[in-house]
Amino acid sequence: MEVLEHKLKVAPTAALVLHFARPLFSSGLTHNYIGRIDLSEVAPMAAKLEELFKHFPETILFRKKYIRYLLQEYLTDDIPVQVCMLGAGLDPLTLHLLEEYPHAVSAIFEVDEEHIGIKKQLYPASEKIHFIQADITDTLHLPDRLRDAGYHPEIPAIIIFEGLIHYISDINFLNIMQFFRTPNKTNVVIMDYMLPENSLPASVLPVFRPLRQMMEAFIGGGIHFYNRAQVFSMVAALQGDVVSVASMQEVEYKLNGRNELYYGEGEGFIEMISCYI
Questions:
Q1: In CATH, what number does 8-276 get?
Q2: Whole-structure pTM over 0.85, yes or no?
Q3: Burial code of 118-151, b = ≥16 C-beta within 10 A, e = fewer?
Q4: Cα–Cα–Cα angle for 52, 53, 56, nearest 5°?
Q5: What residues pair up with 107 in beta bridges, in sequence order?
Q6: Which domain of life is it from (predicted)?
């Protein structure tokens, strides 16, 4: 890890997510990491989103906490696995894995097009961390890039696909995941997806519609929405098996043992899924 005199400025989309996830990084390596990144430029946009949808910060936190919750179920010291983070962004999940599961993870591959340089500066040196600066939709070259970095298809892997499928088509997703398919379905995919308007309760539509417009204006493009049946169909197309799927209502209950924010299906706009492929 380099010693830096000034905080690093980062791309606004990734910074926005990290801004809302700050409470998750309150100690250890992740706390040191977050303290070196300048998130000030996204504060006005974050305030607008929270004003429109007051539970936006909690939804981001639930998403990230639930990924860590699922990782706890899949990681064991008895069978070390590879972890591959596609479109890794700025989330210091790697540091969490190094601290909490040092013997359960054999290698970590962070694939991202924009933020690899920043993480190389801020992460501590570790033989387990492999950075790959690449476009995850470039499926012609991505498999070779992973193999060159030390990824072994014969070793079980957990693939983290967080906050990505909103920006790509189902065809893109299937093409990316083809590389990770295994004959015995030993790989696990953990991801989230955003529900379409017709899968949401009418009570949340007055928030959802302007929120969608604001987010699409912020990213400068459209968002892809998928209902549960469509996601199940994609898993089936990969000849995979769904392990778990959870609405934000279910995620909140599993994490906290009670519901204080979400009481009905679709209220949190996103769902979480894990599957074997």
A1: 3.40.50.150
A2: yes
A3: bbeebbeeeebbbbbebebbeeeebeebbeebeb
A4: 135
A5: 82
A6: Bacteria
Strand order in the sheet with 270-276: 129-133, 105-112, 81-86, 157-161, 188-194, 270-276, 241-247
Domain ranges of the chain: 8-276
Residues with Cβ < 8 Å from 145, sequence gap 6 or more?
Answer: 111, 132, 134
Number of H helices, E strands in the chain: 11, 9
Q: Where are the beta strands (DSSP E) in the chain?
A: 8-9, 37-38, 81-86, 105-112, 129-133, 157-161, 188-194, 241-247, 270-276
Chain segment 197-232, per-residue pLDDT in tens: 999 999 999 999 999 999 999 889 999 999 999 999
Contact indicator for 240, 218 with CB cutoff of 8 Å:
no
Per residue in 156-203, pLDDT (tens digit) is 999 999 999 999 999 999 999 999 999 999 999 999 999 999 999 999
User: Do 89 and 17 touch, CB atoms closer than 8 A?
Assistant: yes
